Amino acid sequence: MTTLTQHAEQLSTTTLLRFATAGSVDDGKSTLVGRLLHDSKSVLTDQLEAVEHASRSRGQEAPDLALLTDGLRAEREQGITIDVAYRYFATPRRRFILADTPGHVQYTRNMVTGASTAELAVVLVDARNGVVEQTRRHAAVAALLRVPHVVLAVNKMDLVEYAEPVFAAIAEEFTAYAASLGVPEITAIPISALAGDNVVEPSAHMDWYGGPTVLEHLETVPVSHDLTACHARFPVQYVIRPQTAEHPDYRGYAGQIAAGAFRVGEAVTVLPSGRTSTIAGIDALGESVDIAWAPQSVTIRLADDIDISRGDLIAPADDAPAVTRDVEATVCHVADQPLAVGQRVLLKHTTRTVKAIVKDIPSRLALDDLSQHPAPGQLVANDIGRVVVRTAEPLALDAYADSRRTGSFLLIDPADGTTLSAGMAGASFAAAAEPEAAADDAEWDF
Length: 446
Description:
The chain is of the alpha+beta class.
């Protein structure tokens, strides 16, 4: 019992990192994930036995660690990843939520799903093939989604005799390209997922590399939780009015804090109405607190009785987002049915859902060369493009560059509730980094 209690306390004090893997077909993503789980002792005995049995039935002597994540029958038959596979594991230093995303072009939308909440993306490259079109596509998606940390894992180094010049050339090309997209941090690591080199344990075959292993980097990469730098946002999910003898006048606004922190006594604005008040109290887990921060679920009480309902946004009076009905954004179209100009949709932003119409689709982005195809008229599955949407009611929308939580939205088919597109308000890519910094050897963690 003591051991379980100590383990629970240890998990509660470790930070959480969400990360996604991406790469071309057969670059070894699932093998890397399987090796990461296996060597970090995060695989249950029955899971490993099932993988060993499946591997033997396919005529393989050693267990195929890719089967730890490729769970669909079609994935195992073809040896590819089709759907996003989520895995949860922990080390003494950090907890992890991993999204293993597909590599095929037709599954680009799946990578967008897996990387949308990721704080780090691991992009795999086959050392024999170098940076290919799909590598650039995944780097562009990571840049669009504002993933703050990108790891270039140059895999299958054992098949190029662990040659340093091969790794250096790939790292330089990828780093320059990703930096030109505005990716703020790029770390290159030479690995062999099949042999386990530099995944969890340092490689004995690459003494020329002095940087961290993949797991070491995942455990030590800084995860920003600087609440003072966040725009505080509280989407109202539910209005609590008990109207009982014990609480005859209680009026609280419940929801999850999307970003930042709120304090008792702070002046706030309620959007889209624009009415102002001050926070009279904050209730969390049945107790009154003076301060609450993201991602806590709390109930906020205001000093004034204001008409507030689900979908309204509470923000600091001196840091409230602008309210608009014209939304310009980049969207990734995820539905099989196309998105066309003039189409009527529902726009879901945090807890607010409003009617909208697609006024314009100015361009479609070709991720292979980042060229803009003007006026495509419609977007089909896996397309990424710019859209202009007019909403029936005003929205308090942040730029995605400022807040990934309150700068994102979904376009939904009003007929059957199907998700059509995932949107990111504001500019497409971040400002490009300086070329000199992009090619700096220090970024490779030598």
